[in-house]
């Protein structure tokens, strides 16, 4: 049993002075068969601790479900951390941010039109209580007080950037303690938010990437004694669609780390290993303009997306060795990679020809949101009949987040949330036509005031200024592609179309799926959703974890929303994360 004590002069572990040297490693962003490898490499960089968020929305896709299987097998992750000799900082939210879909808050919360997230709203607190009732019995055996690796538990996350309701934080703290959490609690906030986000009696920690002295001074101003800790030392950054790949010079980050450790502070790298926003799990930011996060969460971290040590890993290991014992083992070698160019995708399945097996339509007098449909991720297809021929102007109150518009199956335009202008003009032929609007949830906002981010066609939808009151709303979560009927064809059809092919593997290894000539969509290998691709960039490849592949035949499926210049893809040893932001 290793007990963490918080004293006026710092952390103590089992009565001895202790410095937390930790790194972010989110189990839900890493294939579970690779957890042990990443944890081992964390220890070899010199870490004694790892930290992880808990994504409430993945564990509880519905209010009556709590999933702990596969990539969500939290107990197994904690056991592997302990087996590697690592402690754990546990960050259960309920809100996590993390550039994660909705900041980890379940979308079904937003089915209640009165919901007020991250407040004492009765509906929100009741849902949080149920979440903790399901989560904590699983986690309590892993607390340090019971012989496990979890040294401390975070209370909420960067709450000072959202609100200043001490009653809400107090209620959360009480909820944790009364359910058995008896290890230290802590909060973490950016320097300017420490006063609003903290709670008396709970350890405050600070988040920053540079300006070490200023950050620690801000923490001391709020907390005159006790440990100094940077819970999120931002050693890299995330990317957004339409931007460039963000990196940070390893030497610059190492100098800041050295300054932080020289001040006697503890540290948690954000991130040690970023991993991947598999499937539809990426979040988004909206500070007046919606910006969705890309699939890769490489984060320019010490371990890259494929788990290989970077120059930053080596630089940090050298700095840490000045303040703690250097691991005896060398820096881990790069893992094997698999490459195969020119994989053909000869089979096709138009999405609109395969709707019957993918979801059940709901009729209504307006388009229903994803949340009203009980849907978390993916797409919604809205359909109505237009009987009046002639020029027609479609106007939508809000598009969340990207709508492809079709008239009798032919594309007539795209409406995007970030463009703010949600109108489109087309001509309805004599005899009328069917209007279809395919809306993609590109990621719920994960930070700030726009957190209440309902998806679909929002607000009034009019044609030539008149409301349409006969709609079909079809949820398309695309969780199971089994019902799709593929057929071999000689030419590529325009999207939205699913494309399928197979390729052979002798010995599985990590790879990167390159999608040159493809426009926008999602990719699956052997049923595993690798995530979104988009020619808008910066990211132009998708990470393929070795455990997704199998010896022999492997299946690849692309949902291409628009069209491609060819019908092949490549597996390559190296990724393409796009041009670097200078």
From TrEMBL:
Residues 11-322 form the Glycoside hydrolase 35 catalytic domain. Residues 367-476 form the Beta-galactosidase 1-like first all-beta domain. Keywords: Glycosidase, Hydrolase. InterPro entries: B-gal_1-like, BetaGal1-like_ABD1, BetaGal_gal-bd, Galactose-bd-like_sf, GH, Gly_Hdrlase_35_cat, Glyco_hydro_35_CS, Glycoside_Hdrlase_35. Residues 496-554 form the Beta-galactosidase galactose-binding domain. Gene3D superfamilies: Galactose-binding domain-like (2.60.120.260), Glycosidases (3.20.20.80). Pfam families: BetaGal_ABD_1 (PF21317), BetaGal_gal-bd (PF21467), Glyco_hydro_35 (PF01301). Belongs to the glycosyl hydrolase 35 family. PANTHER family: BETA-GALACTOSIDASE RELATED (PTHR23421). This is Beta-galactosidase family protein. The lineage of its organism: Bacteria, Bacillati, Actinomycetota, Actinomycetes, Kitasatosporales.
């Amino acid at each position: 049993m290793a007990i963490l004590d918080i004293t006026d002069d710092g952390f103590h572990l089992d009565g001895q002075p202790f410095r937390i040297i930790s790194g972010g490693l989110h189990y839900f962003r890493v294939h579970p068969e690779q957890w042990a490898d990443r944890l081992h490499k964390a220890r070899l960089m010199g870490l004694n601790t790892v930290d992880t968020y808990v994504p409430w929305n993945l564990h509880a896709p519905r209010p009556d479900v709590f999933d702990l299987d596969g990539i969500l097998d939290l107990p197994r992750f904690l056991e592997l951390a302990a087996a590697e000799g690592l402690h754990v900082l546990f960050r259960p939210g309920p809100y996590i941010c993390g550039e994660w879909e909705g900041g980890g808050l379940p979308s079904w919360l937003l089915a209640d039109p009165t919901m007020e997230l991250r407040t004492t709203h009765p509906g929100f607190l009741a849902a949080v209580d149920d979440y903790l009732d399901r989560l904590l019995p699983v986690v309590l055996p892993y607390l340090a007080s019971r012989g496990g690796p979890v040294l401390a538990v975070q209370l909420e996350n960067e709450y000072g950037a959202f609100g200043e309701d001490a009653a809400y934080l107090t209620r959360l703290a009480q909820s944790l303690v009364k359910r058995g959490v008896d290890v230290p609690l802590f909060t973490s906030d950016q320097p300017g938010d420490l006063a609003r986000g903290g709670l008396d009696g709970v350890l405050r920690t600070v988040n920053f990437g540079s300006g070490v002295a200023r950050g620690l001074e801000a923490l001391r101003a709020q907390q005159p004694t006790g440990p100094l800790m940077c819970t999120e030392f931002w050693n890299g950054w995330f990317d957004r669609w339409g931007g460039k790949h963000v990196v940070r010079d390893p030497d610059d980050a190492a100098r800041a780390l050295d300054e932080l450790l020289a001040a006697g502070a503890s540290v948690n790298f954000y991130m040690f290993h970023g991993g991947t926003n598999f499937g539809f799990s990426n979040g988004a930011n909206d500070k007046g303009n919606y910006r969705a996060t890309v699939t890769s969460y490489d984060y320019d971290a010490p371990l890259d997306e494929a788990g290989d040590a970077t120059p930053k890993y080596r630089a940090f290991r050298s700095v840490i060795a000045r303040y703690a014992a250097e691991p005896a083992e060398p820096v881990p070698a790069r893992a094997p990679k698999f490459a195969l160019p020119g994989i053909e995708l000869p089979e096709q399945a138009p999405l609109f020809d395969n709707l019957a097996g993918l979801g059940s339509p709901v009729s209504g007098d307006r388009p229903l949101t994803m949340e009203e449909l009980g849907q978390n991720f993916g797409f919604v297809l809205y359909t109505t009949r237009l009987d009046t021929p002639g020029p027609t102007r479609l106007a939508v109150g809000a598009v969340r987040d990207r709508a492809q518009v079709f008239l009798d199956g032919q594309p007539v335009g795209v409406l995007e949330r970030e463009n703010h202008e949600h109108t489109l003009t087309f001509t309805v032929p004599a005899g009328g036509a069917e209007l279809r609007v395919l809306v993609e949830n590109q990621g719920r906002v994960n930070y700030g005031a726009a957190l209440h981010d309902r998806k679909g066609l929002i607000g009034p939808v009019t044609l030539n200024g008149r409301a349409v009151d006969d709609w079909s709303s079809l949820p398309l979560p695309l969780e199971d592609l089994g019902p799709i009927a593929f057929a071999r064809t000689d030419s590529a059809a325009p999207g939205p179309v699913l494309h399928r092919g197979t390729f052979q593997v002798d010995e599985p290894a990590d790879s990167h799926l390159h999608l040159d000539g493809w426009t926008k969509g999602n990719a699956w290998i052997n049923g595993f959703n690798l995530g979104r691709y988009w020619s808008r960039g910066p990211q132009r490849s998708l990470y393929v974890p070795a455990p997704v592949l199998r010896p022999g035949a492997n299946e690849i499926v692309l949902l291409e929303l628009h069209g491609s210049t060819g019908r092949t893809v490549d597996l390559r040893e190296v990724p393409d994360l796009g041009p670097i932001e200078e």
